[in-house]
């Protein structure tokens, strides 16, 4: 649960930015600050420590949903809890998460949703292949469709969503994280769409976020240095004339 370390501090930082998030955009400075402050996020969100959790807690076999109150009112935490299956996505987990997403979508008091793991060292290992192997062929299609719908609905929630990634986030687990608006990763985080090595296409629609997210990082790196006007024109001319540019710092 390293990605949840001191999340109370994260919430305190996030709260003043709610007005920014409400209009559907987050500035680069705010986003950088969010990522910088991940080391101060709260580890004990699901530990025995008293954190002013409300009594409106909904628990099940695979998912724990906590509605925070007090200073953290408006924050809802979805905690995946399938330790024996490494938080793999099962039929029951899809059902419970779908119900939780539907519940917060209709609740105007919810301002932020945090998706995390209760199991140390693992975010989500992807689809539960042991359960899948026992499914009848006629069950597979509907299950995949429900899982895809869940991830789509998670991505379409009207409030900001944050994935706190600790350990491996693979396959559908990574796709759930990609569906969130912000991803905060511990140093232990490992991410991958490993099914592609078996020529299996990822099932959800949010894999395009990989390109968008890394693309923004590359774009920022490219524009980190201000290029003077004359050198910019020299670069264009060199490209057109198929020669090396002769930059002069002007």
UniProtKB/TrEMBL annotation:
Keywords: Lyase. GO terms for biological process: fatty acid beta-oxidation. SUPFAM superfamilies: ClpP/crotonase (SSF52096). Signal peptide: none annotated. GO terms for cellular component: mitochondrion. Pfam families: ECH_1. One of its GO terms (molecular function) is enoyl-CoA hydratase activity. Belongs to the enoyl-CoA hydratase/isomerase family. PANTHER family: ENOYL-COA HYDRATASE-RELATED, METHYLGLUTACONYL-COA HYDRATASE, MITOCHONDRIAL. This is AU RNA binding protein/enoyl-Coenzyme A hydratase. It comes from Triplophysa rosa.
